[in-house]
Structure formats: structure tokens, C-alpha cells
Task: structure prediction
Amino acid sequence: MLTSQIKSNEIVFGSCNKDLLEEIIFYGIGLGADFVEIFIENTDNSSVLAEEDFITSVSPSFGKGAGIRIFKDKKDGFVSTNDLTKHGLMRSVSQAIEMLDITDNKKREVFNGLDKFRDYSSSKKNWINEVPSIHEISEKLLLSTKSLKKNNKIITRKGSYSRNLQEVIIASSDGTYASDIRLHQTVGLNVIASDAQYRSSGSRRFGSSGMPYEFRLWDHEQAANDVFESSMNMLYADYVDAGQMPVVLANKFGGVIFHEACGHLLETTQIERGTTPFENKLNEKIAHESVTAIDEGISEGSFGSLSVDDEGMEPEKSVLIKDGILKKFISDRAGELRTGHKRTGSGRRQNYSFAAASRMRNTYIAQGEHSKEDLINSISDGLYCKSMGGGSVGATGQFNFAVEEGYLIKNGKLTNPVKGATLIGEAKEVMPKISMCGNDLELAPGFCGSISGSVNVTVGQPHIKVDSITVGGR
Amino acid sequence: MNSKEITTQISKAADYLNLKKWDYGASFSNDYSVQVDKGEAKQLKASQKQILTIRVWNESNLVGITTTSDISESGIKKALHQANIASDFGNKNERTEFSPLAKDPIEVKDSKKRNPVGITKLLNLLREAELKLLESHESIKSVPYNGLSESFYERVYANSDGAFRSFTKSQAALYLYARAEEKNKKPRSSGSVKLGYGVEDIDIESCIKDASNKTISHLNYSSINTDKYLICFSPESFLTIINAFSSMFNARSILDGVSLSNKNSIGEKLSTEALNIYDDGLHEKNISSSPFDGEGTPTKRLCLINKGRLENFIHSESTARIFKTIPTGHAGLGSKVSVSPDWIVVEKSEENSALKKSLDHSTYEGEFVYIEELNAIHAGVRASQGSFSLPFDGWLYKNGKKISIESATVAGDIKYLLKNIVNIGSNQEVTTSGISPHIWVDELSITGDA
Result:
């Protein structure tokens, strides 16, 4: 349990670390590694919580660390450490080499030094001074919780804010040498409404990346109205009757179903595990012809956008499904090595203690031509899912999602609110049943937890109609 | 720096900043893990982590906090400085103090600490386990999720009043999740997890056997009709439900308005009188036990439900003070101190005469659904409303035969569930999250797609 006291030859953010990084990479290659990658991180985060009319929590945090990854053939060794000295990083390389049992140190791979430094951070260095102060955040959160106090049925009001600033340096033996600063801000509102035996809750989350001023522009009044209205609509709702039925899924966070049920199955990590039904379906029809789906990391300000991924590659716009035909998988370095699918700038990780993996960024179903009303009018007896809660997908592709705010559709019209609904299905079976896409694509921020930790993503879609799906209820 | 040196360093830096009152929690860990893919090493990992959380009290006795992984002299100074700034925003309406029990004696089981076996041995053991699982049945085609890990960690709590506690521990975990495929059928998956103080304590053979048996038992599957059924919860699935609704016992949740209970709920009838529930973090079977909580309060056994009635809430220092009681050892250090259960123990009480004695899942010949494992808890539980709608793995038992249920959810209300328990098994089983017998509940809704 020792922290190294060596202060010389240490990684210093904001300085040139080229010589030190090259020395460490040379060391790994010299010991017989096929590939050496160094990911170094410095973080400065803070979060604020407002409950009722008071600030009840302010939590700053900061830290630094490094993740060293060594590849030998198709296997990899990953070591993470808080020790950013030359000694600490060298020790991590040795440990990874040792774990991979690389005993043949005859040099086969050649390292020609790091390429020209790609500095994506130069225009972002002042972000930390441009984000709102704790005072500013506190005042706005208190205004938002005050706005939620609209009647005496609202018994719990919460507003939360978090800001994550991450500075990274990425260097690897293919010459990659890049630096970036990432800023993510998110704000959430939650209420619980209660009246006698009735209870309901409502929540909304908003988020952006790379926009230090964004929180100042956030319309807290509109957000509060939206959450309040949702909780009131659901307060006296009956439980939904279970069964098979057509559903219309709202835009924005409705896209979480595509993300969970299909998106994850298009990550190369799933091909590596043999757990995706789409492995051998490239250029085959896997969805209704009305479905085109995209994953990209380039939409300005979107929560899942990046200047450069965690493996030093600029993100691309990947059309995953075009008119129902599978066109591409989401791939990272290990995915390319093990499955042959080209990298897409999707190597992502929560922090230095995770090895990067193929992960979604901004993932959405492209918009179609129909209005929301067209979709609802086409159903005589079904369910409208206005707001989705969380969900999950199992190892064999079955998914399930909670419906936070739902309404019955009767004869083409929205009728009573219903609670307790869960959508259950399997991507392979549901994708061909998405028969209509609306013309109102919108995105929503979220967090996705998977093999390389929790990463910021955007989900999205226009309103879509699924011809038939199992709705769990009572 | 070791934990004593960190305490000295914090004390010096606090003096320099004129901070008279502070405490901290720290953890240091070394973790090693391996994954394999059809006999080949896939990913081998090692990590060294250190986390320090410092709280300071300013002149107005308001608390500020900072967390950092930088445990250098400059990192500690910066953390204290940031915590001091954060204290300007400290909660004036709910003061936090040191736990009055932070210096009480604690029970430390250091003898359970094991030595590392090393990556090579981890890899060889996992390769062997994967191979045995693949060979256990021709339909098992892969073990897509697998891992063997060992962790060694130290946890520390200290404060400016002289409290100092630390303990070191080791823990190992094996998980094997197999995928079986048969022609013209959907792939089926299931698995098993085993924990131990060290790798040598893990029953690898039983993990292989459990993973294989569970996976194979789901190969013959069928849809189930949507209806109300008699349900038998496995020990694991019942503990999942109790943990998901533990806000019923949680004083923090009550104060935050997100619990089904309120300050006056002690003594309220929550379930059949045949049920007792305890929280027992120090239970000898709890591999993850910690002798103290985030505020330094000793961990202890606490009765939550006694003969169906709510007996105690779990507390931190501040919630205990508000409820005019003592902390129970369930606090997590944070700007807002969290409260959570450690290790739930469920048992049949002495008042069990009303239970239906004939129910035993291995012999009962009537129709019932056996819920082996509940999934997607984060999505399907509305703890503040008391409702749940959860997908599960399980079987439909009918006429003495069982068939795996293809895809279904169970939905209901926790208060209804607890009050409609019709049988509690006599044998308690140890799981990774606590101990419980099988629990039978009448008339819960199942949604299937038959």
C-alpha cells in the first residue's frame, strides 16, 4: 500500500511528455509486446444536490491514473495504477508483460516513435473556468426545485447537477499521440407525488458535452413543468393489463430500447463472445425496411460526442442499419484484431481503470415520414409509451424495459394513463416489427454501463410503431 | 504512505489550514482478474487503486467533503482545501457529527486474509473450469461470460478526535455463465457465482456443476400463459426483492420521502407473522463483511422484521440523532451520508402455525412457478411506490414435471407479497447477498407470451 515518492520523470498534464511516453512504449515493445497503449487521465469533477428548498450535498472530487494495455497475438494484459511516475508506469508495463507470460523478448514489432502530437485540448483549456460556479449551480437548482412545488401532492422534489472534466493523454506503439479535454454536464429533476394510497414519480435528465455555458441556458421552468405534469398524469393511473399488443414509443429517450436491445448486439465485444444473433448477418435484412439506424460521435454538444476516442481515433458516423439491412458493427482496437471489423472510433472506457471496448456513442433510429398522430391513429387497441425508464438486455438477447409514463390507445386515440408496464422481447424478433417511423427525431442523454464501465451516450429516435410486443403488467 | 502516515499528513495539513475537525475514509486495493475464451487467455487485468474521502467541519460546524485518488502530500492538501471550500455549502438543516461509536471496540477477522495465488494460477484454474463446463453437456457451446479474480484491500477510518480503525482483507470470485444451443431452439444461458476469502476457498467444482445444471435445465422451454400463479421464490430471488425494497427499513430513505415507511412505522405489521428478517453484516458466511461502516461505527446484527412487525430501522449518525437512537453501522461516507443494508438474513419465526406445511418445491405436485433469479432490478422496481415488474429465469411446475419458462415477468406490490407469504422453507441457503429459505407467495401476476 505504498504511494511512490519519486517525483522526477512523472507525467505532467499540460507539458510535453513525449520522451517519457516513448521510453515506456520502447520498453514494452523491447520485452516482446506486439502492441503497447498508454491511457493517462486527470479528472476534476463536482456534483450538487438540491432537495426541497435546500442544497444538501456538494461533492467535489479529483484524481489521476493510467491504464496500460499490452497486446500479444489476440490476447491482452491490462494494468491500471495511480502512480504516474516513470517508475510506476514501467512497473505496470512489466506487470502486463509478465501476466501475458511473454518470455520471448526477441524484438519483432518495430516502434518508430510517436507521431506528431494531435492536441484536441488546445481550445478547451479554459473550460474549467467557464463552467458555472457552485454558487451559480446552487441558485439554479433551487429555482428548479421551487418550480416543482406546484401543489401539495408533490411530496419530494430533487434537482441534481454533475460536472465531469476529464483530461486525457493517449499514446501507443502505432505512433498514436493525442490529448483531449472532455466536459460533460448533466442536470436531473425528480419528484414523487402522493395522495392517499396513490403514488407516482417523475424524472427527467438533460445533458451536454463540451459546452461549458449550456447549463446557464437550461430552461428549468419548462423542465419542472414537464416532470410535474408527468407525475400528476400517472398519480391515479391503473395498472396496465398484460398481453401482446401494438405500441407506439415516443421519441427522445424511447430510443433506449434500440440502444439496449439492438445496439449492444452490434458491438464487436458481442461477436467476440458469440452472443449476438447478428454475427453473420452483414448485408442481410435484420429489421423492417423503414428502419435506418446510426451510431456516431460527432454531433456537436451531444452527450455521446467525442473529439477522439479513448484509443486515439477520431470518431466516425457509422450507419449500422440502412433500410433494414445490417451494414456495420461498432468496433474498437481489440474488436478489429479479434473479429476483423474495422475500428469506428468507438473505443471507450469510464476511466483509466478500464480497458477500452467497443461502445455506442450517439445512437438513434433515423426519422421517417409519418407524424406522431399517423402512428397512433393506425392502432385500434394498444399502448403509447410516452416516457421510458431503464432496462436491460440478457445474454441471449431478450430485453425488458419499464414504461415510466404510458397511455392506452383505443380506436386511434390516446385514453387513460396506465402504470406498471414493462416491454419484453427479443431484438431479432422486434426489429422487423418496427413498421412506422415518425418525422420527429430527437436525442436524449444517458449513461450506459457495460464491459468498460459507465460511459456517456445519447439515445434517440423519432416516434416509432412496433406492430406487436409483449407488455408485462398485472 | 501507509494509513498511519496519511492520518499524520492530514492532521498536519488541517492544522496549516486551521481546520480543527476532520475525518476521512480511505481504501487501498490490489486486484487481479482473468477471462478466457475457449481455452485461450482473453484479458488479464491487474489494478492498484487508492481512494481517499476527507470531510472537514468549518467554523460554523458545516461539513464539506472531497474525494481523490491522489494520496500524495500535495493531493491531501488540495483535498482538504477543496473540502473546506465545499463546507460553505454544507447542509444547515441536517448537521453531521462524528459517530458516538467511532471509538467503540470492533471485531476484526484478520485470520481470513489469504495470500495472492498470482495471475498464472488464476488463468490455469479458469481455463480448466471453462473446459469442464464445456464438456459437461454437448449443448453447451460457449462460456461467454467468465472470470476469476482475487482482491486484497485495506479500509481505514480516522478522525481528529483520535478515532482510528483499519482492517485488511482478501476476496476471490469465480463466475461462469454458459450458453447452450440446440437445433431449432433459441439459445439459453445461465450461470453461477462463487465467492471466497481466497481462490483456494472457492468451490470451483460446485460452480461448474451449478452453471451446467442451470443452463441445461433451461433447454426445454415453453411460453407461459399470462395469469396469477402460486410462486416459489428461490433464496437468491427473495433476497433480491428484499434488498430492492430495503428503503422500507432505511431511516435515510424515510427522511428523504422515498420510503414506504415513515418515522412512526416501528411496530407496524409488514408481513405474515411467520417471517423474521435481520441485517447481519458480521455473519460468518458474509465474505464481504466489514467490521465498521463509513463513519467508523461498528457493524452489528440488527433485527428488521420480528414476527412480521417492523422492529428497527438502519441508521447513520445523523439519522440516528434525528430518530433519537444510536447509529447502527450502515453509513456510507459522502457529502450526504448514505445508509444501506449489509447482509440480509431471512428466517421462519416461531409464529408459523398458519403456514401451509405441504409446500416444498422438490415434492409439491400442484402447479406453481419457481423463480430462480430476478433480472433488471434497476428498471423494474419502483421502491418509493412499492411496485415491481421484473423479468425472471424460472420454471413452471405442473403435475410433478418442470419446464423452463421462455420469457416472462412477475409483477406485484411488496406489501402484498410480504403479507401473502404462504410458506417459508425450513432450510436456509447461503447466497452471495445473504441467507434465506425458499419463500412461497400466493397469487402473483405473471406475464408470458403464450
